[in-house]
Specification:
single chain; about 425 residues; Adenylosuccinate Synthetase, Chain A, domain 3; 3 domains; ten-stranded mixed sheet; four-stranded mixed sheet; 12 helices; binds guanosine-5'-diphosphate; binds 6-O-phosphoryl inosine monophosphate; binds magnesium ion
Length: about 425
C-alpha cells in the first residue's frame, strides 16, 4: 500500500482505530503523529476489545513496527501501563514500538494545570478537555520549557525536572490549583524514565531510512479536523495539528513521500466536550444515535453529543486534508431511521454560508440548512459487499460523497474487522 495518512474528518471518534487496524496489515510501519492520551482508538477483533490511547493501533497486528512520532505529547506512565495491557493480550511490544526522542513528555503538573485552567474558566468558556494535560504540555513545547523523551536519558534530567516542578507549583498555587509533592514526583519520574529507555529512539532517521529502503508507512491521525489547533472550532479544539499536514511535522517525513490521504468520517456527527455543533440533536433522534452507536467517550466515558451529517464540515475536511478516499463508518447506526437529514449549508443572519466560518461566534449562530433523504429501514451489519446494500443506503452514502468531493474507499457497517466493505481502497 502506498504511504497513506489517515485523518478524522469531524470532531474525533470517527472510527479511526478500526480503519487503521483494517489497513495496517498492508504496511510495514504505523506512525502516530500528534496528540497524546486524550485519544481513544477502539479496535474490535473477534470478541476482543482494545482501546489504544498512545500506541498506534497497528500494534494489534503481528509484524508492523509502530512509532510514536515527535509530534506527540507522551505521558510515560500511561504509556507503560498501555504497553503492559497490550502485552497481557499476548502481543509483542518490545522491539516493535519506538518513541521519538523528540516527543514531549507530559508530567503530573501538566494534568494539574489542565484541571486548574478549566476550573478558572467561566461556564460557557470551559473547553471540556479530557484532563490529560495535553494543552499545558503543548504550551511548554511552544514556550520552549518542555522536556522531551530524549532528555529522560541524560544526566541533566533530574535537575531539569526539579526546576520545572518548582516553577509549576508556583503557577498552580497562584491559580488556586492543587500543588504537587516535588520529591515524590521526582522519584517516580526518575524510575519511569529508566523504564522508557528501551523504547526511545531517533525515529526521524529510522523513518527516513525505512522509506528510502522501500518500506511503507501508514500515518495514524488522532482527534479530528474540527479539533485541529488551526482549522478547528478554536478555542474549542485540542492543542495539536490533527489534519494531514501534521503528519509531516509530527513525524519528520517530507510531504513528497506521502502518496494519499484517507478521511475517516461517520455517517452522522458526534462531538464530546464543549463548543459549537450546528447539527446537534437534543431530541429522541439524538438519543437513538447515542444508543445505537454506543456513543460514549473511549477515553473519559462522557456521553457524546450526536447530530445529523454535516456536509459543510465534510467539504471543509476534504479541502484541508486533500482527502483522496473516504472511509465512512457507522452506517449501520442509521438502519432504523425513516428519514435522514443532511446539512448542506448554514444560514447565518439571513445569509447562506457554504464554507466553514473561522469564528465560533458566527458558527454558534449558524442554523443548518437540511435536505431530507429517505432511510433504508433494514439491517446492514451483516452485509459484506457494497452491491448488496439496500439501494437507499447506497444513495445516502453516494450523496454524501458527492457533497464533499472525494471517492468512497471503505464503508464500515459494524465495529469488527469483518464488517468492512472495501470499495475503492
Ligand atoms: P476513534 O477515536 O476515531 O478511533 O473512534 P472511537 O474508537 O473513539 O469511537 C468509535 C466507536 O465506534 C468505537 O466504539 C468503535 O468500536 C465503533 N465503530 C467503529 N466503526 C463502526 C461501525 O461501522 N459501526 C458501529 N456500529 N460501530 C463502529
Ligand atoms: P480521538 O483520537 C474526541 C476533545 C475534548 C475537548 C477538546 C480538548 O479518540 O478521536 P484536550 O484534552 O485535547 O485538551 O481536549 O478535544 N478531544 C477529543 N474528542 N476524540 C478525541 O480523540 C479527542 N481528543 C480530544 O473532548 O473537547
Ligand atoms: Mg476516540
Amino acid at each position: 500500500m502506498p504511504n497513506t495518512v489517515l485523518i478524522g474528518a469531524q470532531w474525533g471518534d470517527e472510527g479511526k482505530g478500526k480503519i487503521i487496524d483494517v489497513l495496517a496489515g498492508q504496511v510495514d510501519i504505523v506512525v502516530r503523529y500528534q496528540g497524546g492520551n486524550n485519544a481513544g482508538h477502539t479496535v474490535k477483533i473477534g470478541d476482543e476489545h482494545y482501546v489504544l490511547h498512545l500506541i498506534p493501533s497497528g500494534i494489534l497486528r503481528d509484524d508492523q513496527v509502530c512509532v510514536i512520532g515527535n509530534g506527540l505529547v507522551v505521558n510515560p506512565s500511561a504509556l507503560l501501563d498501555e504497553i503492559a495491557e497490550v502485552e497481557a493480550a499476548g502481543k509483542k511490544v518490545q522491539g516493535r514500538l519506538f518513541v521519538s526522542d523528540r516527543a514531549h513528555i507530559v508530567f503530573p503538573y501538566h494534568r494539574a494545570l489542565d484541571a486548574a485552567r478549566e476550573a478558572l474558566l467561566a461556564e460557557g468558556s470551559k473547553i471540556g478537555t479530557t484532563g490529560r494535560g495535553i494543552g499545558p504540555c503543548y504550551s511548554d513545547k511552544v514556550t520552549r520549557t518542555g522536556l522531551r523523551a530524549g532528555d529522560l536519558l541524560t544526566s541533566d534530567y533530574p535537575a531539569l525536572l526539579q526546576s520545572r516542578l518548582v516553577e509549576a507549583n508556583k503557577v498552580l498555587a497562584a491559580m488556586g490549583g492543587e500543588t504537587l509533592d516535588e520529591k515524590a514526583v521526582l522519584a517516580d519520574y526518575l524510575a519511569v524514565a529508566e523504564r522508557m529507555r528501551p523504547y526511545i529512539k531517533d525515529t526521524v532517521t529510522y523513518l527516513g531510512d525505512a522509506i528510502r529502503q522501500g518500506q511503507t508507512v501508514l500515518f495514524e491521525g488522532a482527534q479530528g479536523t474540527m479539533l485541529d489547533i488551526d482549522f478547528g472550532t478554536y478555542p474549542f479544539v485540542t492543542s495539536s495539528s490533527a489534519t494531514a499536514g501534521g503528519a509531516c511535522t509530527g513525524s519528520g517525513v517530507p510531504p513528497h513521500k506521502i502518496d494519499r490521504v484517507v478521511g475517516v468520517i461517520k455517517a452522522y456527527t458526534t462531538r464530546v466536550g464543549e463548543g459549537p455543533f450546528p447539527t446537534e440533536l437534543f431530541d429522541a433522534d439524538g438519543e437513538r444515535m447515542r444508543d445505537a452507536g454506543g456513543e460514549y467517550g473511549a477515553t473519559t466515558g462522557r456521553p457524546r453529543r450526536c447530530g445529523w451529517f454535516d456536509a459543510v464540515v465534510g467539504r471543509y475536511a476534504a479541502m484541508i486534508n486533500g482527502v483522496d478516499f473516504w472511509a465512512m463508518t457507522k452506517l449501520d447506526v442509521l438502519d432504523t431511521f425513516e428519514t435522514l437529514r443532511v446539512c448542506t449549508a448554514y444560514e447565518y443572519e439571513g445569509e447562506r454560508l457554504t464554507e466553514m466560518p473561522a469564528s465560533v461566534n458566527i458558527l454558534e449562530k449558524c442554523k443548518p440548512v437540511y435536505t431530507d433523504v429517505p432511510g433504508w429501514c433494514e439491517p446492514t451489519s451483516h452485509i459484506t459487499r457494497y452491491e448488496d446494500l439496500p439501494a437507499r443506503a447506497r444513495s445516502y452514502v453516494e450523496y454524501l460523497c458527492e457533497l464533499m468531493g472525494g471517492q468512497l474507499g471503505i464503508l464500515s457497517v459494524g465495529p469488527k474487522r469483518e464488517s468492512t466493505l472495501r470499495v475503492g481502497l
